[in-house]
Amino acid sequence: MEWLWKSNSLRLQVTEKIWVLAVVLGVLTLTTSGVESRKARILDSFEYSAISCRAHSASITDFGGVGDGLTLNTKAFQAAINQLSQYGSDGGAQLFVPAGKWLTGSFNLTSHFTLYLQKDAVLLASQDIAGWPVIDPLPSYGHGRDAAGGRYISLIFGANLTDVVVTGDNGTIDGQGALWWQKFHGKKLKYTRPYLIEIMHSDNIQISNLTFVNSPSWNVHPVYSSNILIQGITILAPITSPNTDGVNPDSCTNTRIEDAYIVSGDDCIAVKSGWDEYGIAYGMPTKQLIVRRLTCISPYSAAIALGSEMSGGIEDVRAEDITAINTESGIRIKTAVGRGGYVKDIYVKGMTLHTMKWVFKMNGNYGSHADSHYDPNAFPVIQGINYRDIVAENVTIAARLEGIPGHPFSGICISNATMGMARKAKKVAWTCADIEGITSGVVPQPCGLLPDQGPEKLEACHFPEESLAMDSIELKRCSYQKKYL
């Protein structure tokens, strides 16, 4: 336990400033439009790490882009990407976005392509809602999340692609979401809000070294895709902003999310795979997911949530070295009758938590159905849930674990977990119903449905030793050389 306590102390020091930022975000919307970017020279050349390097380069300014925060650059971005797409079979191409404020609507990516945002480069999402294209709901959802019909396309969008990199020197993508949040709360949206970036039906994707702020809804949404690396990103939104999930791996295989810092109004990481009968029919699970070195602040949601849209299945999720501060729950499973699907083989170790309502939470009665056509006999299967090596303090309730009557959640294992209760903690630390499992070395004492196996079984909860395919990804050292036209 000594290493955990030392780690806890260090992490709390590191994340103190992030907590201060979260307090500010609770009352202020981050904005870049009202503050002048620092003047920065445009680099003639630089290097960066990526899954693929490119043979051809161009700047958005080569296509008439103007970074004054006022000129709409949608056509410039799309023209640049269309032009650079011709190099897909000739070593690929990269588009450089220099320092400035680049107002733009949605644009589509292409294969064998890199979008690079220099430090002090800010993509500002257009607030002209009429200018946002509307596309069909996702087939595994069959229904918009904000409204019954279609959905506004994401700011950065790609479909049926391979070998795509969206990266930078911590450049910023600003969704300017306040307008969207107001319309959502006022029930004035005809379609579901856009995300900042969505990549679907694609393979070999990297999203790294960027800051995402004020998304209208979800921030980063890979869906129906495989071999995805999400690394070194910062996501910031007011803690009261609606549905501003951080990263949502959705019906994806082989995904690695690491070194992420997220302050949001919803789940920091939300693992999904389709909604009710639509997700069951589509039948595409999320599996082989790695989440490591995540720092999360979300007072009304979870650090990592599994569901609630999990009807295609979720399996083999490995999360470690997770820090959460003033977050509603550490790990949460959300499901309900009608969801079908499964959540199984979940492995979590090394969590450091400070000021939590719940450390563990499972809901078998989440509700929130796509429509009234779901199958009332579609019972989700929740099994093989492993949590170990956890230190938490200032906890209101240790756990609320509620399965489904007649269909209990099984194979739950919690070991080596010490939860310091808050001064005003609830008298009953554990609430359990319709679950089956074991515990070892857990404080405070768990409920009777999770019998203690004794201190000699501290490693009873499994965490796989074998690596997944995404662990073997090696980044290349790439370069950009400005070409003077």
UniProtKB/TrEMBL annotation:
Origin species: Escallonia rubra
Secretion signal, residue range per the UniProt entry: none
Highest classification ranks of the organism: Eukaryota, Viridiplantae, Streptophyta, Embryophyta, Tracheophyta
Family (UniProt): Belongs to the glycosyl hydrolase 28 family.
Stated name of the protein: Polygalacturonase
GO biological process, alphabetically ordered: carbohydrate metabolic process
UniProt keyword annotations, A-Z: Glycosidase, Hydrolase
Record PANTHER family: PECTIN LYASE-LIKE SUPERFAMILY PROTEIN, PECTIN LYASE-RELATED
GO MF terms held by the record: polygalacturonase activity
Record Pfam families: Glyco_hydro_28
